[in-house]
Amino acid sequence: MTRLLLDAHSPAQRSRLERFAATECVDMHCHCLPGVDDGPATVGEAIELCNALVADGVTTVIATPHQLGRFDSTLTADDIRHAVVELSAALSARGIPLVVEAGADVRVDERIPALLDAGRLVTLADSGRYLLLELPHDTFINIQPLLAEIVARGVTPVLSHPERNVFLARRPEAMSPWLEGGALLQVTAASLLGHFGPLAEQVAWHWLATGAAALVASDAHDAAARRPCMTQATEAIARRLGEPAARRVCVLNPALLLDGEPVRAARHVFRHRNPR
Ligand SMILES: [Fe+2]
């Protein structure tokens, strides 16, 4: 795994690393590859987003373009790996201190177990240990059987921003069996700051406060409306839930995930039926 040399870090990266006594600050969900999904359209826009990540204190980003769903059959695992190599070369040519690893934000689909077996999906950091799964935003699907099949393959499913699913935001207890079955929750930094509305904000905080959410990521798509805001979210978590909680979900767990090490939520059981 590539790591930046210590003296290559930007001031924002250095300050975040020093504050959390970390060797890297990982954003494990970001649409930073150019021309592959609804992230940056060009290399120039991808570089702008990568500069925004560096200014946000991120040292390593897992590039997670959409696979399946509306990007069905257009983006292969090797396309993603190739795009990561190209973006890494463009960053290095410009002296931008950011490590990029391959991953994907995979839309929930019954074909996932077979596609995993065939090596056609990209796991996070290509480690074969974690698969980022995106639920539809407006409908409820019981994904428990799918999660069980993924777990049976030694892969841990990570649910990306379930706070943006209207049903789950209103009935978060529906996810309890999924979490008890081994899935992890990732909430989006911008949700905690209210960028996706009050319901997503409230339930994202509820999942952090109850220990159900193990990871916070940017899910950034550009350097403007959907820019990375990990530093702002980390500060907000430190203020509301304390420094150790902020360190765990924003720095420690994303780094463990990057290295393919076990990540655990603080608590998997929802104590309240509804956050409101
Ligand atoms: Fe995403």
Which features does this protein show?
six-stranded parallel beta sheet, alpha/beta, binds fe (ii) ion, 11 helices, TIM Barrel, 276 residues, three-stranded parallel beta sheet, 9 strands, 39% helix
Description:
The chain is an alpha/beta fold. It has a single domain (22-258), classed as Alpha-Beta Barrel (TIM Barrel). The protein contains 11 helices and 9 strands. The protein has helices spanning 11-19, 43-55, 77-93, 112-117, 144-152, 166-170, 176-180, 189-192, 198-209, 230-241, 243-258; strands spanning 26-30, 60-63, 66-67, 99-102, 105-107, 130-134, 156-160, 184-188, 213-217. A 6-stranded parallel beta sheet has the order 3-5-6-7-8-9. Strands 1-2-4 form a 3-stranded parallel beta sheet. Helix 2 links the parallel strand 1 (26-30) and strand 2. Helix 10 (230-241) packs across helix 11 (243-258). The longest helix is centred in the N-terminal third of the chain and has 17 residues, at 77-93. The chain is globular. It starts with 10 loop residues before the first helix and ends in an 18-residue tail after the last helix. The model is unreliable at 268-276 (pLDDT under 50). Bound molecules: fe (ii) ion. Fe (ii) ion is lined by residues 29, 31, 64, 105, 160, 219. Fe (ii) ion (FE2) is lined by residues 29, 31, 64, 105, 160, 219.
Briefly say what this structure is.
The protein has helices spanning about 10-20, 45-55, 75-95, 110-115, 145-150, 165-170, 175-180, 190, 200-210, 230-240, 245-260; strands spanning about 25-30, 60-65, 65, 100, 105, 130-135, 155-160, 185-190, 215. It has about 280 residues and is an alpha/beta fold. Strands 3-5-6-7-8-9 form a six-stranded parallel β-sheet. Strands 1-2-4 form a three-stranded parallel β-sheet.
